[in-house]
Amino acid sequence: MSDIAVRIEHLSKKYHLGRRTDGHPTLRDAVASLGTRVIQGRSKTASQSSEFWALSDVSFDIQRGEVLGIIGANGAGKSTLLKILARIVSPTSGRATVYGRLGALLEVGTGFHPELTGRENIFLNGAILGMKRHEIAAKLDQIIDFAGVEQFIDTPIKRYSSGMYLRLAFAVAAHIQPEILVLDEILAVGDAEFQRKCLNRIETIGNSGRTVILVSHQLGTVQKLCTRAILISGGKVAADGSPSDVVSAHLRRTDAQMAAGLSARTDRLGEGRVRLSHIDISSPTGALVAGSPAVLTFEISRSDIKVDCSFTICDEVGEAIASFDSANISEVDSVGSHFRCEFTPLLLVPGRYYINAGLYSSGALMEDHVERATVFDVHAGQLAGRAVIAYPGYGHMTMQHQWTRVSQEG
Amino acid sequence: MAYNMSSSPIDDKKRRNNIDGAHSKIAAHPAIIIRPRKSIDTSDLLEILQFRTVIYFLIWRDFKVRYRQTFLGLLWAILQPLASMVVFSLVFSRLAGISSDGVPYSVFVLAGLLPWGYFSHALASASSSLTNNRDLLKRVYFPRLIIPMAAILSCVTDLLTSLGLLLLVMFALGVPVSLNIVFLPFFLLIAIAAALGAGAALAAAHVRYRDVGYITPFAIQILLFLTPVVYPSSLIPASWRLVYGLNPMAGVVEGVRWCMLNIPPHPEMIVVSAISTLAILLGGLYYFQRSERIFADIV
């Protein structure tokens, strides 16, 4: 109680769905709605039906030095909460009190200008993230060194590779030193090397006694990094406590939602013209067995839109194991109401797995995306005559292989 | 949910002080209270000072980027008013025979183009500034007014360049510089204030209504004819002069000509323009602050 970094009291945020968020309203709309209001005598029925509470009555305190992970399904209100704390959007009611300098990093590279050089962008970006000019100047060498772009520092960044761009952006962000650091899904972008740097940096920040608030879909990351976690569901705090407890609470919830069936799920993203309606996982021999063939069938809601189906197999805490995409099948095959994906054989070790699945229409436009769309268990089996064994903590996949033991003979 | 709104401002302040007091030892940085934005908050204007580094860098960015990858670079800031001067002199002086209050028409029109060019350019870039900086609005916090402010201030460099051009042309044509030039900053400040007020309002409206993007260039064009740039204000009937002065730029152009060329002004028109500018500035800032809280939601 004595050492609070952020206090959130009855915080709520309302959004208007439909016309106002959809496109850009024009003066004509404003005039038209004024007309309707006059005629209907300021009836508010129309506006109420399109209201959406992204957050409703959220209250909790964050202690100084905590590394807080915020988890929840898509659209649960996690990012809205972060945006309010970062003062990007204004709450509808309630309030939050922030004790100390808060730095928010909601997207790497915000405010970078392609025409400016790397060095110039460091200054611009640093200023936007709240650093003073002398602070940036003092850290300039460190930042350039961290990003590893010394050679190109006076080149306009429109000539940078995307990797260089990302490294430079993260280097600037990693050197802002707020007392409270707010991060949104930063770990979801970049290559493994970049993610490792991110994680190290966050660990360092947490160890130095500063407060970190982190939104992530990667439950494993939250468990590894955070000292506390909060589960947001439907705009409310659904669980609060140790990361492992909160992560399992989240998993229980999604399991319950899975039981309701895929077409009933509402925690999905995308345009929605076409939806995944059912996923079936089967094996010619009955139960799914490691090392034996398996068939995944994705049923979709309509067959007249050309889409690609992609899915990721994840472990129990949501860490991705392998991803698959139908995008490289020939065009003739791309009509129909089902996608079939065959594994001959299935190379997963025995255990429980989840599938995140999505549909993408041309131009990589997301039509549908469901996290933990379905679950399946793989049973013990054999691959090429050898038993496939699961060693917890030693990976999820196997490969066809042979062992021999030989003596070297001259 | 109505927690915050039900309490009176005084209660709120008390509570805030209590919290601050209890944590004064650990929180060197003052506590920031985030809550629904309702009305005008003067602390926002003070906050702009805290974020002056951002203003500085946004101005600097605009300046750096403006003439990147152009062959002529900064020369464009001179060529544009120079070309307008030549065209206007040909059309309005030679063909239409408009009088120029006793000084060479080219100098006369250039002295008008100096504040007008600044105003029209600043207004156009301010009105699209918020929508052009959508990424910033959605991802980082700083007082939003900084964005149109930076757009307006970054045009000042062009204003100074064209002032240099005017002095050069006056020297070349043997037109003496009036001592009234010491009052020039006053009139330029009016032009900046008018551009800020109108620019902030248009920028805020642009976020809601994309129509503004079409209206602004057109309105600027119309306004040119309601400003004594190509013709002397003495052409306006005396009875209409006060109404004419409601256009802030009418007074500014009049004032700049008096400062540079000692052309006798109509003081009452300048007074009306100054008052009108103040109204536009306050009204524009008020509308901006009122709209500010929803920018990130709808931009």
Gross morphology of chain B = globular
Q: Could you list the spans of chain A in which at least 5 consecutive residues all have pLDDT below 50? A: 19-23, 41-48
Give a short account of the largest sheet of chain A: 6 strands, mixed
Mean pLDDT of chain B equals 84
- Output the structural class of chain B: mainly alpha
Instruction: Give the N-to-C terminal Cα separation of chain B.
Output: 26 Å
Note the overall shape of chain A.
Answer: globular
Helix-strand string of chain B: HHEHHHHHHHHHHHHHH
Q: For this structure, what is the CATH homologous superfamily of the largest domain in chain A?
A: P-loop containing nucleotide triphosphate hydrolases
Distance between the termini of chain A: 74 Å
Write the CATH architecture name of the largest domain in chain A.
3-Layer(aba) Sandwich
The number of domains of chain A: 2
CA radius of gyration of chain B: 23 Å
The sequence of SSEs of chain A as H and E is EHHHEEHEEHHHEHEHEEHEEEEEEEEEE
What is the strand tally of chain A?
A: 19
